[in-house]
Amino acid sequence: MTKFDSIRPFYDSEVNEALKSLLHHPMMKAMMDFTFPEIDESTWKEQLSRTHSIRDFQINFVYQSIQRVLERSSEGLTTSGFEKLEPNTPYLFISNHRDIILDTSLLNVSLFDHGLVMTASAIGDNLVQKEFLLKLSKLNRNFLVKRSVSPRELLLSSKLMAEFMYQLLSKENRSVWIAQREGRTKDGNDATHQGVLKMIAMASDEENCMDFFKKLKIVPVSISYEYDPTDALKMPQLLALSKDEVYIKEKNEDFITLLSGIIGQKKRIHIHVGDILENEYDKIKAENDNNNKQIQALAQVIDDSILQSYKLWPTNFIAYDILNNTTTFAHLYDDKERQLFERRLEMRIDAENETMKAGFLAMYANPVVNKLKYTHDIA
Question: What is the pTM of this model?
Answer without folding.
Answer: 0.93
